[in-house]
Structure formats: structure tokens, C-alpha cells
From TrEMBL:
It comes from Micromonospora narathiwatensis. This is Transcriptional regulator, TetR family. PANTHER family: HTH-TYPE TRANSCRIPTIONAL REGULATOR RUTR (PTHR30055), MYCOFACTOCIN BIOSYNTHESIS TRANSCRIPTIONAL REGULATOR MFTR-RELATED (PTHR30055:SF238). One of its GO terms (molecular function) is DNA-binding transcription factor activity. Residues 13-73 form the HTH tetR-type domain. Residues 36-55 bind DNA. Keywords: DNA-binding, Transcription, Transcription regulation. SUPFAM superfamilies: Homeodomain-like. The keyword Phosphoprotein does not apply. Gene3D superfamilies: Homeodomain-like, Tetracycline Repressor, domain 2. Pfam families: TetR_C_14 (PF17754), TetR_N (PF00440). It comes from the Bacteria. InterPro entries: DNA-bd_HTH_TetR-type_CS, Homeodomain-like_sf, HTH-type_TetR-like_transc_reg, HTH_TetR, MftR_C.
Length: 205
């Protein structure tokens, strides 16, 4: 990728993030039901047409952070050594991601606190369920490449679902115990959830 193309991609990423941040802010201030695409575009200082170039709906803008972190997690998972057991590889990748997200500047926790206000909102449940299922499928597809033996697809789906449940529990625990390190909490939760076939293997660092 040349320098000009790289600059364009960074500008697109910045605009997408600005729209996501605006959507979260408006949802926190007024409630998700009262947020409109027009209001998000205005808050981000872009046109309605520009919004449509990045997101198909306000729900997609609201949950962009989840999509963004999933993309990063998959990239980190692919970067793990090919011979590493799947749960160990996933654990290392997710702990690395948590360290990136929950840095010392507090922006990660600030984002999480705004994002969690959307959880369980009736108007967003359908989108959340669809997004969760899509995340599980993508993660399972990546994990299946690291599995051998019978029932690879089934085992990969089980592992992906277990990971997402563990992530949800660790995140909620971290919210309820703000003095604890989110990275350490996730590392501990993943260790407890390690499949029997990988116990005694490498721990997430």
C-alpha cells in the first residue's frame, strides 16, 4: 500500500470511529431509541450521505467498536504460532488485545462503560443477537484451522461460544471490580475456562 492509499485508509478509519463515538455519546445522553442517523452525522460533522458510506444503520454505528475489536482479535489469533493449541492461541491473542484496549489512559474503560449501557436494550436486541452469532461463526472458522480429529466444526463452535461467554463474564466482573486489572481478570477467567484437552499447556501471557 502506497503512502497516499495508507492516508486514505487512516482517514476512513478516523471518520468511522468518529461516527461510532458520536453514536455512543448520543445514546448515553438521550437513549438509543431517540438517536437518529441524522443526529449522529451532525454530531460527527459529516453529511447523511457520508454516514451511509460507512454504516447501513444507527445500530451498526453503535456497535462498531465490537466489530473493530473482533477484527483485531482475529488478526492477533492468526499471528499466533501455527502449532499452538487453539485455546492457548486464542487466550494469548485476547490478552494482548485487552492490554491494547485497557491501557493506562482509561479510554478503554470509558468506552466500555458507555457501550454497556446498550446491553439488553429492547430496541437493540435483534442486532445484538445477530452480531453475536456472526462473531461466533467468524471466530469458530478461524479456530477450526487449528483443530484436528473428528467434529472439527462442532468443536470450534463450542470453543468460540465458550470464549465469548468467558469474555462476557470477565468484562462484567471487571466492571463490578474497577480496582482490578481487566487484563488480569481476563487472563484468570480464560485459565479457568481452558478445555480439558489443553490443561497443562501454555498459559496466556
Amino acid at each position: 500500500m502506497d503512502e497516499a492509499a495508507g492516508l486514505r485508509e487512516r482517514k476512513k478509519a478516523a471518520t468511522r470511529l468518529a461516527l461510532h463515538e458520536a453514536a455512543l455519546r448520543l445514546a448515553a445522553e438521550h437513549g438509543p431509541d431517540r438517536v437518529t442517523v441524522e443526529a449522529i452525522a451532525d454530531a460527527a460533522n459529516v453529511s447523511r450521505r457520508t454516514f451511509s458510506n460507512y454504516f447501513s444503520s444507527k445500530e451498526e454505528a453503535l456497535f462498531h467498536g465490537d466489530t473493530r475489536w473482533l477484527r483485531r482479535l482475529l488478526d492477533l489469533l492468526r499471528a499466533q504460532p501455527a502449532g499452538e493449541p487453539p485455546w492457548a492461541a486464542l487466550s494469548r491473542a485476547s490478552v494482548r488485545l485487552a492490554a491494547e484496549v485497557y491501557s493506562d489512559d482509561g479510554t478503554g474503560m470509558s468506552w466500555l462503560n458507555r457501550r454497556r449501557r446498550l446491553h439488553g436494550h429492547p430496541g437493540l436486541l435483534a442486532h445484538q443477537a445477530a452480531a453475536y452469532a456472526a462473531s461466533e461463526r467468524e471466530l469458530a472458522g478461524e479456530l477450526a484451522h487449528r483443530l484436528t480429529g473428528p467434529d472439527q466444526a462442532l468443536r470450534a463452535r463450542i470453543m468460540a461460544a465458550t470464549f465469548l461467554a468467558t469474555l462476557r463474564v470477565a468484562t462484567q466482573h471487571g466492571i463490578e471490580h474497577p480496582d482490578a486489572s481487566m487484563v488480569d481478570t481476563l487472563r484468570t477467567a480464560l485459565a479457568h475456562a481452558t478445555p480439558a484437552t489443553e490443561r497443562g499447556g501454555g498459559a496466556a501471557r
